[in-house]
Amino acid sequence: MNIDVIISADHIKEEYLENKTVVVIDMLRATSVIITALANGAKEVIPMLTVEESFKKKMELSKLGIPSLLGGERRAVKIEGFDFTNSPLEYTKEKIDQKVIILSTTNGTRAINLSLKAKKILIGAMINANAVVELLKNQEEDIVFINSGTNGEFSMDDFICSGYMINLLCQSHEHNLSDIAKTARYIYANNSDVVQYIKNARHYNVLKALNLEEDLKYCCKKSIVDIVPIVNKSSKTISIISK
Fold it and tell me: What is the pLDDT of residues 105-152, one digit of tens each?
């Protein structure tokens, strides 16, 4: 299969994604939140582009008697009136079990919504990388790893996460990698200590300055969650792929 990497949401060309499987990555922190929330019992996650749309969706669900919670950030800071920030550590089973999470973030939920022309959209991060790769091994479509990036720009953290997954994919089979996919694999292969590689990244240091070191530690852990979220393109919701 062919494997490619897109370096930020601003670089997504929607037609290019047609008939391909996409893995959206925003390891710091939106996709780590989605994976964690679903692993801890959330009914589904709804990725929203704007704060206004998020509040509207919550009202719609409330009228239907569906319990929901608002989560997300703007510039890594909690949104006023939301229940949670974008910290995966807040999404505990006690708080979110069987509830719908309405999530709106600066980068990750935007990348997801821009990927809807893909044949299949999976949600990936360091924490579920091996589960994603095991699923990808059993398909025929070309794969595009979409890095959400930071405010439209390249992000070292998402790039090395792509490299980690590509490296895992290539351990058992050789695939046709684009130049940027080869580079991502090379970066990971030579920097398997992820924290040491991304500690000078701008977004990493923004989170560190906000005293979010525990989030950073969690999001950099490799393959600790054994689920793969998938986007239902018709409803624009995210749930766990049934095993």
Answer: 999 999 999 999 999 999 999 999 999 999 999 888 999 999 999 999
Report which of 195, 220, 222, 202 is spatially closest to residue 155, judged by C-alpha positions.
Answer: 202
SS3 assignment, position 115? coil
Number of structural domains, the chain?
Answer: 1
Beta-carbon count within 10 A of 74 CB: 14
Q: Which residue from 168, 153, 164, 223 is spatially nearest to 194, judged by alpha carbons?
A: 164
Q: Which domain holds residue 15?
A: 2-240
Query: Do the bridges between strand 77-78 and strand 68-74 make them parallel or antiparallel, or are there none, so unpaired?
Result: antiparallel
Nearest to 219 by CA among 120, 148, 136, 135: 148
Helix (H) or strand (E) holding 201: none
Structure tokens at 204: 């990493």
pTM exceeds 0.85 for this model: yes
Q: Which two tokens stand for residue 165?
A: 């997954």
CATH number, domain at 108?
3.90.1560.10
